[in-house]
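## retry 2 of 3
previous attempt timed out at serialization; input unchanged, resubmitting
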Amino acid sequence: MSFRKSPTLSTKVVRKLRGREIEEYNQIDVSTMSTIFLVEDDQYISRVYERAFRLGGHEVEIMEDGESAWTKLSAMDPLPSAIILDIILPKMSGTDLLAKIDGDRRFDHTPIAVLTNSFNQDLEKKLLAAGADLYLIKIDHEPKDVVAKIEDLIRKIH
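## retry succeeded, writing output
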C-alpha cells in the first residue's frame, strides 16, 4: 500500500521584527486551495485582501467593477468557492450584482459575502435577504479575520 502526499505549494512570507526582515515559508496543501472572487474598486484594499487570502492558501480573482465582474462570473467554469462584493462599485453596484448572482441557479451553493464600509443596518438586512450570506464592515475586521470568516462560510455551504 502506498500513500500519496498531497501536493503542496511553498509561499515565502517576509515580515519585519525589530527592524530586521524575517523570512518564513508556509506550506499550503494545493488540493484544498479555493478560488475567492473579489469585487472591489479600491486597488489598495483589493491588494490587501488578495495578499491575506493568498497567504491563507487561496487563489484570488479580482474585478474592479460590477459589470466586468458579472461578465466574468457568468462565464466561469468552475465557479469560485466564494464571492466577496463591495457595495459601491462603478458600472454596476454591488446590490445589482448580488441580485444577478442570486437570480442564477448556478450560484446557489456559492457563498456570497458583502464587504463594505456602510454601517446602514437597513441595507445590511436588505442584502442578507437578497442573497448575501455574510455582511462585514471593513474597518471592523482585520483582513486575516475576513479570511477566517470566509473559510468558515465555505465550509458551512460546501
